[in-house]
Amino acid sequence: MAEIALTEKTQEEAKDERPVVLKVDHVAKMFRLPTEQATGLKMAFLNWTKGIKGYTKQHVLRDINFEVRQGDFFGIVGRNGSGKSTLLKIISQIYTPEQGSVTVKGKLVPFIELGVGFNPELTGRENVYLNGALLGFTRTQIDAMYDDIVEFAELEDFMDQKLKNYSSGMQVRLAFSVAIKAQGDILVLDEVLAVGDEAFQRKCDNFFAEIKKDPTKTVILVTHSMDAVKKYCNKAILIKDGEIIASGDKNDVADRYTLENLKVERKNEEKEKDKEKEGEYPLGLSERVPTFRILPVSEQMLTCKDTFEFDVEYDLRDSKDIEFYIPMSVLDVKRGGVPYDCGVSFKVNKTGHNKVHFALPLHLFNDGDFKIIATMRIIPDTSNLKNFEQLAFTSDENSCYFSVRNPGTVNFAGLLNDSAMRIDEIGMSACD
């Protein structure tokens, strides 16, 4: 008997017997953007004879396909304008797709915009019932969840005050609490993880940690935070220009998203280069130094085993060669701080349009996103670094970004602890 070989994907699907609670099948969405408005029948007729429709079609989503199973914490990521929010509105039945279908099994609670449906003239209590009704719950169902909502929002003493008297933070906490405490099967969240103060965010973090353990609850999360994707999600998709370009493993999707952002930085560098050709000088540049940028040579997504190579391109327009320095620093973009500062290590004495090639070993680097910045300075006396003439510096657009991802490491510090620095215990003494 001939055996049928299953693909790796089919084998994985065969192992996962959890029911599919959300199926997005070949979904496409288009909007019509007006270009020329007819002021009367005559103008409309003339436009029609000329083939002018008066609008252009904007294809926001193109053939989107994915499944979410019960118990998934499913991430949807992408840059602004990629189509994420439109997709969520289709899933939440706010928009209707031009093509394809969305199948939902269970009670879906959308939380797309903070406080949508809240009335500032009503009390907090009345707004809870109003918002619950808009989400499709009966009064009896809202009665059952009311105490949990108020307790989570920590607003027990304010529920009979009008919402217009709430601070913005209190309103956010109440709206968020209504969404996550609503007794739904599928929770849809759009960019809501940074709500409230630090204490409330810790409470939300604990909530998500608990909901991940509940096999009956499903969460769909749209966020720009790749840390949140890696922390909470078990699956994710990346949308670009209305299409899914990566799906499956959350870490792979998060890293691909970071890489897409780095590509955008390269495009911005090219735009700045075009501006310089036109005689416009971006921040940090001048007629004397119209070009000063850091350009990646290596791939910008690396591990600690790699070496990141880059060029510093400059154009110093002096009539004769002079001595100058190119101090550089490595900044930790997310955590803050300066893991490395080279000071006056790099001395140059050649004017004109040139490139200097550099290499940065990454064996001490932990997971993180980093930026290299540089300045161009004349320093008459290196023993007195406060006395210098600054010729140019790299702004955000012409600095250079790179990311480090090390499988199995913990992303809590810019440098690998044991390799970069170690604290030794040298003794203990009793205290009075």
Automatic annotation (TrEMBL):
SMART domains: AAA. CDD domains: ABC_KpsT_Wzt. InterPro entries: AAA+_ATPase (IPR003593), ABC_transporter-like_ATP-bd (IPR003439), ABC_transporter-like_CS (IPR017871), ABC_transpr_TagH-like (IPR015860), Bact_Polysacc_Export_ATP-bd (IPR050683), P-loop_NTPase (IPR027417). GO terms for molecular function: ABC-type transporter activity; ATP binding; ATP hydrolysis activity. Keywords: ATP-binding, Nucleotide-binding, Transport. GO terms for cellular component: membrane. Signal peptide: none annotated. Belongs to the ABC transporter superfamily. This is ABC transporter ATP-binding protein. It comes from Bifidobacterium bifidum. The lineage of its organism: Bacteria, Bacillati, Actinomycetota, Actinomycetes, Bifidobacteriales.
